[in-house]
Design goal:
Length: about 600
């Protein structure tokens, strides 16, 4: 029978991952040989993904074999140099399949759809676009051939629960039921590793939502959560390249000592943001150094001459060869051998992630150069990836877009820039990007789809839960800045989907669902600096406000009366003739705070106001 993978409960997924890690040792000889064949011409006649592929599959009575990988992926290189050069595998592909290869970074719709299976992920589809086989990760030639033969013997369509639910109508509550919340909290308590940090699974990495939830619990007095957050951040430093900076994607073997050396944008952005946030909260210089090490790598390797950001750096100097020896070398020795390939594609989503992270680091340091980097990248994306209507393309051509992830990441980045600067143009751009969310809304009320539905497409788009978590959090925070009911309604679209028990409990640990629900139900930390931007006393107050805002749910504004009323003028501030800061809740505001250090003192005396 073909290998048929489904989303697994956390405990089963952990056991499965461990088994896969154990079995992968048999692939070591293949990995050693892969570099020798990596430069050879491919023997598989790979095609691009298109609707024509499925028309040809029907006409030729063949299946579609989708190889979904990444240019930075070590085991993708190994499989290309071994499995896809095996005579038996080649014969099976030529006779029964139309082979399609896709770089997952170029197609977020396919990447999100199949991310539980790779990389590399190998998917077999029939001519109607139905999945009939899914394979996770590297497979040596003999095993891969056996799997293909089994699929040919039983080519029945697989049932994915996400497709089975696509005709459901989501009209329930936009808040979690108590039982669902308790179940997620129980999974969190069971999953965290208090001894070495991270989650109890084979792969150890920086997870944004789980750490944010841990920070949230720690701020409310949970000593165990505080211990776990501290242990995770300290342990994860082992994944930061001591020579060039930047963070490796993850470590295997259930510890932090076996890194996979690729450096991808998502991990850099998450790590920079979390370490900067931890520094704001705890003041540990090691956290600030870690965030700055990520920036050092970004500046040296993943920043284009125009200031936009590249996508990733390969794990392998020679594709298919393990990088342990190489990454143990110093700078000069590495450069003498050559630098692993950098993917110089400039994608909107990935730039949005890094822009937002840089604003977090700026808030922690007040370093104007950091803010300048965020502004420069944002302006480049607006100029080269933006559309006149305020939406965004993924890249220059956007052949298969638009993608919800690109709109969302840049909307968040624009709001983060407004929070960091008080410059109203960024808020206007965030609102314009949010206005396009409606085109991605699922007809059944099931959140936002990865792409707008196209009748001619073989694959119906799906909502991605992580994107919907981020959409709910962003739109809710935007509503606090604007007071616009349309922004709150946009948040509700995502909240109704992610709060559904079947969705919230479908996959492993989804602490982001808790974050989104808690933020929607509570007022954010609200600090406003009132004063002219030309007044030299105002900027230190604003930077002090940013340093105190350690979580995502924060509303930091700079009201210069010469610019007119704030977009959401829900608080009437007095005119004092000099800059002052005010810390407000939904019921009260502080007395005017005239010196930067007074903001920290006020929040120390009122810790609940600063805990988000």
């Amino acid at each position: 029978m073909p290998s048929r993978w489904i989303a697994l409960p956390l405990s089963v997924a952990v056991a499965t991952a461990a088994a896969l890690a154990a079995s992968s040792t048999s692939a070591a000889p293949a990995a050693a040989q892969a570099g020798k064949a990596s430069a050879a011409k491919p023997l598989v006649a790979w095609r691009d993904w298109s609707e024509q592929v499925f028309a040809d599959a029907r006409a030729q009575k063949k299946y579609v074999l989708l190889d979904l990988g990444a240019v930075w992926c070590h085991w993708c290189h190994v499989m290309d140099a071994t499995t896809y050069r095996d005579p038996k595998v080649l014969a099976l592909i030529r006779k029964h399949f139309i082979p399609v290869r896709v770089d997952q970074d170029t197609r977020p719709d396919l990447s999100r759809r199949y991310e539980d299976f790779g990389w590399p992920a190998t998917i077999v589809l029939d001519a109607d676009g139905q999945d009939i086989g899914k394979m996770r990760g590297y497979r040596e030639p003999e095993r891969f051939a056996r799997t293909l033969e089994a699929i040919l013997e039983d080519p029945s369509a697989l049932v994915d629960v996400r497709d089975a639910d696509r005709d459901r109508v989501y009209q329930g509550e936009s808040q979690l039921a108590a039982a669902t919340r308790d179940a997620i909290e129980a999974r969190f308590a069971d999953a965290i590793d208090l001894e070495i940090g991270g989650l109890k699974q084979n792969h150890r990495y920086i997870g944004r939502d789980s750490l944010e939830h841990g920070m949230w619990r720690a701020a409310r007095g949970d000593a165990q959560a505080r211990q776990w957050v501290r242990r995770t951040l300290d342990s994860a430093r082992a994944l930061i390249d001591p020579v060039w900076g930047g963070m490796y994607q993850y470590s295997t073997h259930g510890d932090w000592k076996h890194p996979h050396y690729e450096k991808i944008m998502e991990i850099q952005a998450i790590a920079m943001s979390l370490y900067a946030r931890a520094y704001k909260t705890g003041g540990d210089p090691a956290d600030l150094r870690s965030a700055q090490d990520i920036r050092r790598y970004m500046t040296g390797f993943l920043t284009s001459p125009d200031g936009a950001f590249y996508t990733s750096q390969d794990a392998d100097r020679v594709p298919g060869e393990q990088g342990d020896g190489y990454f143990a070398l110093g700078d000069a020795e590495r450069r003498a051998l050559g630098i692993p390939r950098i993917d110089r594609a400039i994608y909107t989503r990935e730039n949005g992630w890094m822009i937002e992270a840089l604003t977090e680091l700026y808030g922690a340091t007040g370093d104007a150069a950091v803010l300048a980097e965020a502004r420069r990248a944002a302006r480049w994306i607006v100029a080269h990836r933006g559309n006149p209507d305020g939406s965004f393309r993924r890249d220059a051509r956007d052949r298969a877009g638009p993608y919800f992830g690109d709109q969302l990441a840049m909307a968040r980045a624009m709001l983060a820039l407004y929070s960091a600067t008080g410059e109203r143009d960024w808020l206007a751009r965030a609102r314009a990007a949010r206005a396009h969310f409606a085109r991605y809304a699922a007809p059944n009320g099931g959140g936002y789809l990865s792409t707008p539905h196209r009748a001619a497409s073989k694959l119906r788009p799906r909502p991605h839960i992580d994107e919907n978590v981020d959409a709910a959090r962003f739109a809710d925070l935007l509503y606090r800045y604007t007071g616009d009911a349309a922004d709150r309604a946009a948040a509700t679209v995502a909240l109704r989907y992610i709060s559904d028990a079947k969705v919230a409990l479908r996959r492993g640990l989804l602490t982001g669902v808790l974050l989104a629900n808690d933020e929607a139900a509570s007022e954010p930390l609200h600090i406003t600096v009132v004063g002219a931007k030309a007044d030299a006393r105002a900027l230190p107050l604003y930077r002090a406000a940013l340093r105190q805002a350690g979580g995502y749910q924060r509303r930091i504004e700079w009201w210069d009366p010469q610019e007119g009323r704030l977009v959401n003028p829900d608080v009437q501030y007095p005119s004092l003739g000099r800059p002052a800061a005010f810390v407000c809740t939904d019921k009260t505001c502080s007395l005017p705070l005239l010196e930067p250090e007074q903001i920290a003192r006020h929040l120390a005396l009122n810790p609940r106001q600063g805990s988000r």
